[in-house]
């Protein structure tokens, strides 16, 4: 029977994710899991984020890709602690891969770990990696229908981003449909619109990252008292 096997895989994943979460919590590291389509701008956004927070937060990056180390090479220009996971065809990161990635990073010396998941809006959402928050990234040229077509990203993210707003004058994209579809699913999730290329809206995102570091640590402290 297939179904129990799938359940066991997810159960094992969740156990390792819990271990990752415990290790990160003990080390005082906040962990964000960035999920978005291929080409939505995840690596570009992280390049800009690392550049903005350089010298302020000690950041480590785990970047997942099917093949190549190109994203890691791009990000290593802005950060000393980057590790690439090649999934060898796998379309998402799992907790065990993140655990291996963490073993290649000086976790105890970090404030923040950002995971760039494999470009895919489907199964990355279903695999807990031990993160404190998932961030769903959409982008203008993908079209306004993506929140409605990928509701789980909307339902499970602590923050949603709409990247490439510099392209709004150039591609058909109904902001009304994007926003109303999204709000039908969730009326409480913050949505930030930005362009990782022009830098518009980037400050609000960087502030959110700063803020979430503080909030997660405060919540953890409250949970242990
Ligand atoms: N116009 C525009 N292009 C962008 C933006 N962000 C990323 N890109 C471009 O989109 C392509 C894919 O970006 P990348 O960061 O590699 O996406 P990833 O596959 O999600 O990591 C690259 O050519 C980027 O230069 C943006 O805000 N505006
Ligand atoms: Mg990338
Ligand atoms: Zn997958």
Characteristic terms for this protein:
single chain, Rossmann fold, seven-stranded parallel sheet, 43% helix, binds guanosine-5'-diphosphate, binds magnesium ion, binds zinc ion
In words, what does this structure look like?
With 225 residues, the chain is α/β, with parallel strands linked by helices. The chain has one domain (3-214): Rossmann fold (3-Layer(aba) Sandwich), CATH 3.40.50.300. The chain is 43% helix and 17% strand. A 7-stranded parallel β-sheet has the order 3-2-4-1-5-6-7, with helices on both faces. Helix 1 (3-27) packs parallel to helix 4 (95-103). It is globular, with a radius of gyration of 17 Å. The termini are far apart. Bound molecules: guanosine-5'-diphosphate, magnesium ion and zinc ion (ZN). Zinc ion (ZN) binds at residues 91-92, 123.
Topology at a glance:
Layout: H1 3-27, E1 30-36, H2 42-53, E2 59-65, H3 70-76, E3 82-86, H4 95-103, E4 112-116, E5 133-139, H5 146-149, H6 151-156, E6 159-163, H7 175-185, E7 191-193, H8 202-224
Parallel strand pairs: 1-4, 1-5, 2-3, 2-4, 5-6, 6-7
Helix pairs in contact: 1-4
The helix tally amounts to: 8
State the order of secondary-structure elements, H for helix, E for strand: HEHEHEHEEHHEHEH
Strand order of the largest sheet: 3-2-4-1-5-6-7
- Taking pLDDT < 50 over at least 5 consecutive residues as the criterion, the unreliable ranges are none
By DSSP, the count of extended strands is 7
CATH homologous superfamily heading: P-loop containing nucleotide triphosphate hydrolases
Distance between the termini: 45 Å
The ligands found in this model are: guanosine-5'-diphosphate, magnesium ion, zinc ion
Shape: globular
- Tell me what portion of residues adopts beta-strand conformation: 15-25%
Return the CATH topology. Answer: Rossmann fold
Rg measurement, Å: 17 Å
Overall number of domains: 1
CATH architecture: 3-Layer(aba) Sandwich
Helix-and-strand structural type: alpha/beta
Give the averaged pLDDT, no decimals.
95
Helix content: 40-55%
């Amino acid at each position: 029977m297939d179904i129990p096997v799938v359940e066991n895989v997810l159960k094992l994943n969740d156990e390792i994710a819990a271990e990752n979460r415990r290790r990160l919590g003990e080390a005082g590291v906040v962990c964000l899991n960035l999920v978005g389509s291929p080409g939505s701008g995840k690596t570009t956004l992280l390049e800009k984020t690392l550049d903005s927070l350089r010298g302020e937060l000690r950041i480590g990056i785990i970047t997942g890709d099917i093949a190549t180390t190109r994203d890691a090479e791009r990000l290593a220009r802005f950060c000393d602690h980057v590790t690439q996971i090649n999934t060898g065809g796998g379309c998402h990161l799992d907790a065990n891969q993140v655990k291996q990635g963490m073993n290649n990073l000086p976790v105890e010396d970090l404030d923040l770990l950002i995971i760039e998941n494999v470009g895919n809006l489907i199964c990355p959402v279903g695999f807990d990696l031990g993160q404190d928050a998932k961030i769903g990234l959409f982008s203008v040229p993908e079209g306004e229908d993506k929140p409605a077509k990928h509701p789980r990203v909307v339902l499970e993210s602590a923050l949603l981003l709409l990247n490439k707003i510099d392209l709004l004058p150039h591609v058909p994209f109904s902001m009304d449909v994007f926003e109303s579809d999204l709000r039908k699913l969730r009326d409480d999730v913050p949505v930030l619109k930005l362009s990782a290329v022009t830098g518009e809206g980037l400050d609000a995102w960087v502030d959110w990252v700063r803020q979430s570091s503080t909030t997660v640590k405060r919540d953890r402290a409250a949970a242990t008292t």
